[in-house]
Amino acid sequence: MISRRISLCYILCFVIYWKHLTVSSLHIINLYVPREASHEALLDCRYSLELNETLYDVKWYKEGSEFFRCKSNGSVLQFPVDGVKLYVSELVQKGTCPLILTGLNEQSSGEYLCEVSLDFTFQSVTKASKLKFVLPSLKDVRKNHLNEDNAQNRTEGLRSRYNLANKCFYYPFLTVVSFLISILCK
To answer: The Ig-like domain covers which part of the protein (predicted)?
Structure first.
């Protein structure tokens, strides 16, 4: 009877010790997904690791479909998903996985989830937030029409703030907006 209690005690101690070894301090510090956006939206997933932990990758999902991945070496991968057009840097910094959604439309609305995974143990944490596409207000439309460089300046500001390389943004709504303004303002 005593040996059985000792055996159970050893097993319990081993389980508690093993659980302690496998507990990770992997955390998503900040998930930034705007609640509403009309033209483009900055998404960012900031995470923290312990010194002895190695990142496997950071994945972005829209409504359960993976569309973007930051690898541990800083490289990125993109996957086609309806409603998701991206502007990203070729390399990302450790501790963050930012991207800019461009050319937003109704299909861009939905839940965006970030998943951070560790190497070897493949432990992961996730955090999600919803984004809603909203039509630009008439004030925004007029402002964009009066200052055609506004979109480019805003884009350059995001690029420099998040160290994104020079790539072109495509704004399919500008031609429609310009046409509507020319009709409305006459």
So the answer is: 43-126
Burial 163-178 (b: 16+ CB within 10 A, else e): ebeeeebebebeeebe
Structural domains in the chain?
A: 25-134 (2.60.40.10)
For the chain, state the CA radius of gyration: 23
How buried is 79 (Cβ within 10 angstroms: 0-12 exposed, 13-18 middle, 19+ buried)? middle
User: Tell me: the pLDDT tens digits for 63-89?
Assistant: 999 999 999 998 999 999 998 999 887
Q: Could you tell me the pTM of the whole model?
A: 0.64
Record the tokens describing residue 53, joined without a space. 């932990």
